[in-house]
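__Protein archive entry__

___
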Amino acid sequence: MAAHGFNQELRQRQTQSQVLAPQLRHSLKILQVAAQDLRTTIQEELQTNPSVEELPMDSVSLDDSNSSDPDSDSTSNDDSSEFDELKFDETFEILNKLDQDWRDHFAEANSSGQSFTSDDAERREHFYNSLVNEESLQEHLLSQATLADISETEMRAVEYIIGSLDNNGFLATPLSDLALASRLSLSEMQSGHRLLKSFDPPGIGAFDLQDCLATQLELLGLRNSDAYEIVQNHFKLLTRRRIPDIARKMGISSEEVKIAIDEIGLLNPLPGRKYSEDTNRSVLPDVVVERDEDKWKVTLNSDYIPRLRISPIYKEMIAKGSLSKQEKEYIQEKMRSGKFLISSIEQRQQTIERIANEIVNIQSEFLEEGISKLRPCTMTQVADTVGVHETTVSRAIANKYIQTPHGVFDMKYFFTPGYKGGDGESISNTSVKDMIQQLASNEEPSKPLSDQGIVALLKEKNINIARRTVAKYREELGILPSNLRRQY
């Protein structure tokens, strides 16, 4: 009989992992937090760092926070130059990798004959917006994929599909297109899609509303129910609420149809929406744009930003030379951390101001005339002009609001892809949506405009847009299809 035993051996494997240092985490948090929440964030930092003290709001500016104390440099053992030369964006090397991966993806797509479309640009903006959510839909799904027992190829497919989902959790891109762009086979992509649809929230990864509702009913074990048959085979009648027609086709009573529709009403039609940003909160503008004689002036709201400095008491303790080596190292470390905090706040304000100024430069026509003149604008465009990285722009505009003559807007509002009109002028997606809203509001109730009719009217304004894009924008605006808007 052969002897069986356990063999132990050591194997060396080299892996790469990306870890955010604590100071970088604090900087990112300070950069992306809203003005009204910034004081709370900074107070949390102050509780763990006794070397930093807060001054009365009107006693010192941020520029004075590094102090003119001649002894300030001597307290850090020549480490102060580290802070004098601090470049905020140089700390974002980890995030640069994310952007480069995205650029490589689209470079591959372009090299294979695929063009970078407006929908691609929207997904790219969504990618950067997802960087600053508490927990994005993508993070929630990826955490489940990591725990799943799947192959490396299936993981690649799942990751690619997750990156292609829209804000509602739907997959608008055909799997065949994703397979081509990712260089995976269609069967591998289909396998990854089946896995994703088993994740939480139920209905995630569906192609459309019908698929989403059917998937949720399947997961609830209701595949043989009246509700499932209605969704699967009589969905158009369901959207028109044609209860008698559904009852006749299914051979059941109208009351049974109503019960089934009530079951469908308990499902979640937009599974990804709960991970979207919560907009039900009071907001204060971080930036105010006002007319100053013949130009626009940008002013930052600094009312909620504490004025900080390194405590002179701790500087004196270092200067006296009476501390032990361990005590001195502890205080020096806290002072370095405090300088980094102060620098992060300064860089936050400078970055937001520079981005706001560039928004004003690009959107000057909007400031003059309103939404109809909103121009296309991407984070790449602003990042290149301002001289920062796209991820910096993404975090700097997160949770920030800007007050304009036309109201208070989320800073993300000004970042949108667009279209080129026949006259060569660019127009943003938001302006197109506003036009669709106005066309629907001014239509004759007895003759509502179809999606194709809206396409024709937009074409008269030199805006060439596909019918399916009009339908998508109409749904986003909450406008019903023409047959449901008709009033007799």
Summary: Confidence is low (pLDDT under 50) at residues 1-7, 15-20, 60-95, 112-116.
